[in-house]
Amino acid sequence: MNGFLINIVRCRKMIKSWVINKDKPGNISILNLFNRLSKYITTTTTSSPSSITPIGNSLDSESVHLSNQVYDIISRSKNWNENPSLLKLVPFITPLHVCNVLSHLNLDARTALGFFNWIETQKQRYKHNVRSYSRLLVLLIRAGLFSDAKNVRSLMIKSCGSAKEILFVFEEVRKMNKASEKKRLFLTVRCYNNLLMGLAKFSLIDEMQTVYSDMLNDKISPNNYTFNTMINVYCKEGKVVEAKVYLGKMLQAGVNPETFTYTSLMLGYCKNKDLDNARMIFKQILQNGCHTSEASYDTLIHGLCKDGQIDEAFELFRQMPDDVCRPTVRTYTIIIKALCGLGRRLEAFNLFREMGEKGCHPNLHTYTTLIDCLCKEKKLEDAHSLFNEMSEKGLVPGVPTYNALIDGYCKEGKMDVAFTILSLMESNGCNPEIRTYNELINGFCKAKQVHKAMALFSKMRERRMSPSSITYNSLIQGQCRKGYLNNAFRLLKSMSEDDLEPDQWTYSMLIDTLFKEGKVEKGYAFFRSMKEKGTKANEVIFTALIDGHCKAGKIDIASSLLEEMIAENCLPNSNTYNALINGLCKEKQIYKAANLVEEMIERGLEPTIFTYTNLIDELLKNGHSNEEALMIFERLLSSGLQPDACTYTVFIRTYCNQGKLQEAEDMMVKMINKGVQPDVVTYNVLINGYGNLGSIDRAFGVLKQMFNAGCRPSVATYSALLKHFINDTRVKERSNNDGLDLATSSSSMDISNVWKILDTETTLRLLEKMVEHGCTPTIDTYDSLIAGFCQGGRLEEAKNLVFYMDERGLLPNEDIYTCLVSCCCKLGMYTEASALLGNMVSCGHLPHLESFKVVVCGLYDEGNVEEAEEVFSRLLQCDYNKDEVAWTILVDGLLKKGHADRCSKLLDIMEEKGHQPNNQTYSMLADGLPDGAII
Prior knowledge:
This protein is mainly α. About 70% of the residues lie in helices and about 0% in strands. It starts with a helix and ends in an 8-residue tail after the last helix. InterPro entries: PPR_rpt (IPR002885), TPR-like_helical_dom_sf (IPR011990).
């Protein structure tokens, strides 16, 4: 109720913050919005979990009617099973209806039993629930049909598929057993054992102890099944001491342990990583006159593998045939998984092939293990081939299999393929779990497509999946990466409403983004408010804070924070020192940075590649000799670290700046020979180096290397290439006209002017030159070139390239459309931007909400109300998160621009189309503020 009153107050605040003219057509009164909000809050509060009737406790009117129809037919007709009316109802009868029919206590017991058995034969995959069994038992016992009742009771125990069901049966069976008038239904040892095994499936040990005590009280002697079940359930939990108590009782009862008993004990010891005792039990199997089994071997092999003792496990595996034990698919899979985990993929695949040769067919788990291994090693094509092979063999992929593939493609940024696999998963009737969504959400956020991640967040909600801290952290990081800080803080609020506590990553991401956006004071205030709330900062949060101050050039504060961190007994890690070292290097304080490295080492922290690269970079940038930098490089190598692309690029850039292109090329070769692949920055540096020397053909040669290596050129790549291409063309033209020597010409153009003066003809010549050098332009090429033109406001040239693409059968991708829309908006061409958004959606792309925001606001600014509302209605047909739509378009768009009346109208449209924002979003709108966040 308090929350409701607060929102009423917030709604009234709108009178002050929103200036709405009630007389204007299309405007909505404040009272209207107040009523709408009140209705929404009433709806949400009355549908709280506590007021929802649990499924299974009641039926709706239609279901009751169907149940009564069935009851009438079977209770009044001798040949009810031939009744046409009943046969028509069969497809609609569920266990809930059967339960309702059997609730009629005046139903003849034999008729009830006949119907109970008959309905199971009439429907494929039909399964009675435990309540149906319970209702039937009541009828059978009242009729004195004890023999039938015993059979039904056994079936009821075996039918349990969840902990909830077995607990219900546990209570029912015990009540039945205690009722003195039903002595003929006393539990037998077999029935007790079935009940124990049912409880053991869900590790319900307390209830199992109760059942065991009931056996003794009923003077029922436990047998080997009883003792083995008790020993096994304790061992599965690693409770060997308790298991051995039952082993003692087993021996006292004169029951000899079996292979299963020993195997259970081995399992318990393996769970506790007590492999010495596990080995000892394994030896006792033969010593005590039992035979080792495949399960015995599997248990010990699995224990050894989990402990990293793969070679000993392999020896045990090879001795199995000598013990007349044939390795099973589980045996092979255990070792294959262990080999994959240790990076011994080739050995794992050798064993996989051996399985087939020995007639042991891999199962779903085997394939999933190998697919996961290939994905982790970025061999996605091989993983997909194995997936297809598995499907061709009739094995149906499960959630873990799909998850492995989705995770692999997400980590490589191939989100289109990952999303296709999700669609395949759903079409095959395999329901995604929270991990599936988390992987996709994280992938989209890393690819800076947070709007798609938020759309998946909506799907999770629709499927009644509760988001985890991982879900929220990925989304908050995604919003931060795009610079949507307000949305990140809104998600922080939603996180709290879902009873999830922000962790170190949540706070560090928000602090880091505040500093990156130059909001130093707010970032520091957020940090302090966090501490005031009792949240203790750890090394991750301190590191983010230190890094933020360094990037803001506040080295002194960053240094004091390091001291504060140490004073609070929060030990800095390598990343903490690296942040400060990087800041000192940027401030040209190389010697202080070097001293900090020494302090770092004194604290027992190893410098990282980033540490050394920062020092090398600073030395080379500030005129120190190459030899000094190479000495640091040698120290890096001697520490056992492997330089990365950034380290090598620092040297390559310096050599290029010094005109030493051969040394730069040599360093590139050295880099590749060491297994380090150059990145886009490395190639850009080399292209620029050759361009500066007038070696334009060599620059195109580097571009060819990029293409061959699968490294996607960026806008910066083409900017550098075009700069030198244009300069080269100018030099040649002047040479032809004036007789100048090419090498001595001073004709030059700054890279920042490239996209301002570049024309379509020169661009097409560049594309021809690329083809001459074996670099066939791809969609990515056009994407980068169009992005360059759009950044320079050259819309016509960008459109010319789109037409040129179309002539070659290439369709614009999502990035190209986004650039064109953004360029149109910069030029105030909102109607054309609107048309582009329409084309984008019709081609199956999901535009960024930011694009829609700018277009809708721009159209309103022009007075084009009808078009703005049409664009907004169009976006609601897409799979956006409804709250993010309201945050971006309504709150950060219209409210910030003073269009409160338009905001209210669009909120109407949202509701009419069933896009109801949540309570938090309504409060934000009611407040009429640009954001409801801390910042």
